[in-house]
Amino acid sequence: MAITLKNVRIDLRASRHQKSILERASELKHISLSSYILSTALKQAQRDLTENETLILSNRDRDLMIAALDNPPEPNEALKRLFQ
């Protein structure tokens, strides 16, 4: 197992109630509060990034996209000027 050097600090503020909930959840997982918050935040960040970076097309849209890539239209004058 690789050991990761943790040399950057992240500070956050929470209410007593929020902290209590996080502490109880971390105890259920038998990990420290910091480890719980970090692992949970990283999982959510990965989901958010994947959701933002993934394009899901309907079958119709996928077919239109593939058709446009396979048979691109001839460049018009505006496109030719753009690339000059």
What's a concise summary of this model?
By secondary structure, the chain is mostly helical. The protein is built from 4 helices and no strands.
Structural description of this entry:
The longest helix is centred in the middle third of the chain and has 21 residues. It is built from four helices and no strands. It is an all-alpha fold. The model has no long low-confidence stretch (mean pLDDT 93). It is 63% helix and 0% strand.
Could you give the topology of this structure?
Blueprint lengths: L15 H14 L3 H21 L5 H12 L6 H6 L2
Helix pairs in contact: 1-2
What keywords describe this structure?
elongated, single chain, mainly alpha, 63% helix, 4 helices, 84 residues
* Number of DSSP strand runs: 0
Helix count, DSSP H or I runs of 4 or more residues: 4
The H/E string reads: HHHH
Strand content: under 5%
Proportion of helical residues: 55-70%
**Over the alpha carbons, how many angstroms does the gyration radius reach?**
24 Å
What gross morphology would you assign? elongated
Largest sheet entry: none
Specify the structural class. Answer: mainly alpha
Mean pLDDT: 93
Cα end-to-end separation: 54 Å
